[in-house]
Amino acid sequence: MDPHISQTRRQQRPLRSYAWLPRAAMVACLTAAFPLASCEKSPGTPGSPVAVTATWPDGTVLAVGGEPISGAEVDRYVEMVHVIEPHLVKQDHRRKALANVVLPIAVGRALVPKVDRDAAFREAQRLLSEARETGTLPEGAVEAQYLTGTWKEIGMTIWNEAQSTAPDSFTAVIETPGAWTFAKVLATNAVPGEPFGPLTQVTVQRYDVYYYDREGMRNLIEDGLKELPFEVIDPEWEAVIPPLYLYPRTKKP
């Protein structure tokens, strides 16, 4: 997981416990958070929900809390994981990309209203456009983090973007857990023209435009990783999901 969101605690609560959702100010009807359930009533059986079949976007392989995850979204980070841990096979690369990068992002998407996420995206795009045009962010914009280090220190997502971004240039806007993020790559110790290695260091100015309260995002994602149900849409991807999430452990009494 991106270092700006702490790792998930290992103890797990029952998979189908939704008691925490009202605290997160989600929805009264499970349909809004989990599209596989419906609030429609069955004729002749008042109060009984009718199950409906979900329609997933093309390329969806997994879902968490009703939020689709595509194979392309996971595979975007497979090469990065291969650079960091070249001894692993592709399935392991996918599993690490899913657990450390994609799942926290997907949980944020599942739990935060789309209107807030879209507004943050537009703001991040506006800031990036102005930064590229003027070389500086407008007054009152989000404060930059100056970070130096490997993927561990600057975050997997930004480190991955830095591999294809020339020094003194900006990355594109990408999604990170609970935010839209871009960065200016200031320097790298990589030899020009040669690929990154697991110890390649990069210095960046990182800008995060959060679509949920920054401090609350960490807890929201941690709870979501423990509570939201996982669904396998493409059976070939079942082996990619870490067993911790597919078969969570309950707390001992």
Short note summarizing the structure:
By secondary structure, this protein is an alpha+beta fold. Helices cover 35% and strands 19% of the residues.
Overall mean confidence score, pLDDT = 78
Spatial shape = globular
Summed up, the helix count is 9
Please give the alpha-carbon distance between the first and last residues.
29 Å
Specify Rg, calculated over alpha carbons: 20 Å
SSE string, helix = H, strand = E? HEEEEHHHHEHHEEEEHEH
How many E strands? 10
Q: How can the largest sheet be summarized?
A: 5 strands, antiparallel
- Tell me the domain tally: 2
Q: What structural category characterises the helix and strand content?
A: alpha+beta
**Helical content class:** 25-40%
Beta-strand residue fraction:
15-25%
Uncertain spans? 3-52, 249-253
Describe the structure.
With 253 residues, the protein is an alpha+beta fold. The protein folds into 2 domains: 1-112 and 214-253, no CATH class; 114-211, no CATH class. It has 9 helices and 10 strands. It has helices at residues 30-33, 71-75, 78-84, 90-111, 114-134, 151-154, 156-162, 214-227, 243-246, and strands at residues 41-42, 45-49, 60-64, 67-70, 145-149, 169-170, 174-176, 179-188, 202-210, 230-232. The strands form 3 sheets. Strands 5, 6, 7, 8 and 9 form a 5-stranded antiparallel sheet that branches. Strands 4-3-10 form a 3-stranded antiparallel sheet. Helix 3 crosses helix 4 (90-111) and helix 4 packs across helix 8 (214-227). The longest helix has 22 residues, at 90-111. The two termini are 29 Å apart. Residues 3-52 and 249-253 have low confidence and may be disordered.
